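Example complex used in Figure S2.
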Amino acid sequence: MSYPKLNVYKKKLSHNIKRLKEIFDEAGIQLVCVTKVFCADSSITPIYVEAGVETLGDSRIENLAKMKNLGIKRLLLRLPMISEAKEVVEHADISLNSELKTIRALAEAAKEAGKVHQIILMKDMGDLREGIFNEEDFLEAVAEIIKFSSIQLFGIGVNLTCYGGVIPDEQNLGGLLDMKKKAEQKFNIQIPIVSGGNSSSFYLLRDGRLPQGINQLRLGEAVVLGREAAYGEKIEGLYQDAFTLEAEIIELKEKPSIPIGQIGMDAFGNHPVFEDKGIRKRAIVAVGRQDAFASEMVPICSEIKILGQSSDHTILDVTEVITPLAVGDTVSFHLTYGSLLTLCTSQYVKKEMIE
Ligand SMILES: *Cc1c(COP(=O)(O)O)cnc(C)c1O
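Predicted assembly (355 residues):
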């Protein structure tokens, strides 16, 4: 086995997907599962398909291309670049959009490919990432979109929490629903989908407060980490540890807790601060910032404390650990969304799929 290693517990992940799918099916809401946090790894995405998910979403075309043969609908989450319009039409059935110039390029590319590309038009409801901000601009965009024969206005959508931290509620999602009604009435059209956000919207569904008419949510974090992003709360009945990190101890020694000599700046330009706890037993594990930030790693053994980190080393205080450790042993960590993302992106981290 080689380390650092990302352990993927297939049964736990599958349980999370199936449980959420049940909740969504019961409420009549479409579940789009988001795969970007694990770079749509092809040993992981089939677990979603087996669990009955029909649409997978990702922010990168390269990741959607990997899902070509999964037999699911592919949704591009990040607004397309005009320069990738051809690839978008090839690898995504649906994309989220907010720019007419881009939609024109997609219409052109779809026409050339002999396809109809579906789009979800994004409305900014206050979080200030993507989406058309003003109602008039939104309706103007709809007016133009419905003229393209190679583009279908499949839905309207919103993203919340990711940038501005704005929590989804009856007000902002209600506003999105009003927008849909206005567009439908003004242009005498049907807009099938109202996509009400990401994992942070899940708590509304759980509490039975999701406004009637929101019929799709796009969940990444809630599925992979069993957490609901708006408050960072655990979702009851889901596993939070479907993914863990395992790193190998390369040094284990007793040392003072304060460095010897004049203290300047560390490797990243910070002034480190130390607390004198006397001589402590310290372990260095072979994983570093290039893989995951220490602030995003939680030792599973609660007696272990993270002391610090550089590019390729993470230094642990293992003084309180009861079972003796040795060089060559491994230490495991629970992960956050941020560390899972960087670990999956690091070429130095191997994955092991565990039953
Ligand atoms: C990443 C992303 C999601 C999923 O977000 P989670 O918080 O992981 O559920 C949904 N929609 C869009 C547009 C995204 O970029």
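The first helix runs from residue 10 to 27. The CA atoms of residues 171 and 211 lie 9 Å apart.
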